[in-house]
Write a structure and sequence with these properties.
This protein has 12 helices and 2 strands, in the order αααββααααααααα. By secondary structure, it is mostly helical.
C-alpha cells in the first residue's frame, strides 16, 4: 500500500511518513510498518533521517535513467520472444487489455489506466518468460514509474499510450518480432520527451542536481 501510494504520488516527494497515523488507519503495529519502510528504503523510495523522521524520497533522475535502461534491455527482448511464440489466446488477451484501457481512458480514471498500462507490459513479460522476470523489471523502475505517473493526467496522454500499445499488440499478434521490437522501442523512448517537462514544471519533486543528470543523459541520446 505504501509503495503504491508513493508511485501514484498520493504520497508526494518530500512528504513526511506519519507512522502512527498509518498504523491506526491499517490497524497494524509498528513492526510490520517498519519492515515495509526498510523495503522501501532499499528501493530509495523513502529516506529515514535519525531523530527527525521518515520522508518520501524525491525523484532521483539517475535512478530514472537506470530503470529505463533495465526496462529497455529486458522488455525489448521479451516482446520479441512473445511475438515469436504468440498464440491466438494471448493475442485475444492483449486485445481485451486494450479495450479495458480504452474504457479507463474514457472515464478519466488515471489510477485504473496506470494499473492497466502496467498489466499490459506484465502480460507480455510473463507470457514470454515468467513472473520472476517481470518482478526484476518492476523492482528496477520505481523512480521511473513516478515520472510516468506524472504524465498520465496530461491531455491526450491516454490516447497516445493506447495507440502505442495497439501497435505493439498488432505486431505481436502478427508474429513479427522485428515490428514488435520497433513498436516497443517507440513506446518506451517516449518517456524521454516528458522528463524535461516534468523537471521544469515540478522541480520540487526532483532531487538536487537533476538538471545536470538530465543534460548528461539527454545529450547522449
Amino acid at each position: 500500500m505504501l509503495r503504491r501510494a508513493i508511485i501514484n504520488l498520493a504520497f508526494e516527494p518530500g512528504a513526511v511518513i506519519h507512522e502512527k497515523t498509518i498504523c491506526d488507519q491499517l490497524g497494524v503495529s509498528r513492526t510490520p510498518l517498519r519492515e515495509a519502510i526498510l523495503q522501501l528504503q532499499s528501493e530509495d523510495l523513502v529516506t529515514v533521517v535519525p531523530n527527525s523522521g521518515t520522508y518520501v524520497s524525491r525523484i532521483d533522475l539517475q535512478a530514472v535513467f537506470d530503470g529505463q535502461l533495465v526496462r529497455d534491455a529486458l522488455e525489448m527482448k521479451l516482446v520479441r520472444v512473445a511475438a515469436a511464440r504468440v498464440t491466438p489466446a494471448f493475442a485475444d488477451a492483449l486485445d481485451a487489455s486494450l479495450r479495458e484501457q480504452t474504457r479507463a481512458a474514457a472515464a478519466k480514471d488515471h489510477d485504473r489506466f496506470y494499473d492497466l498500462d502496467e498489466a499490459f507490459h506484465a502480460m507480455i513479460a510473463e507470457f514470454a518468460a515468467s513472473e520472476r522476470v517481470w518482478r526484476i523489471v518492476n523492482g528496477a523502475k520505481a523512480h521511473l514509474d513516478r515520472v510516468r505517473r506524472l504524465s498520465i493526467p496530461i491531455p491526450r496522454h491516454h490516447d497516445v499510450v493506447i495507440a502505442e500499445h495497439s501497435e505493439i499488440a498488432r505486431a505481436v499478434a502478427a508474429g513479427d518480432p522485428e515490428a514488435a521490437s520497433v513498436a516497443m522501442k517507440t513506446h518506451l523512448d517516449r518517456v524521454f520527451t516528458m522528463i524535461r517537462r516534468h523537471v521544469e514544471e515540478r522541480r520540487d519533486y526532483f532531487a538536487t542536481g537533476s538538471d545536470a543528470v538530465l543534460a548528461e543523459h539527454l545529450d547522449a541520446l
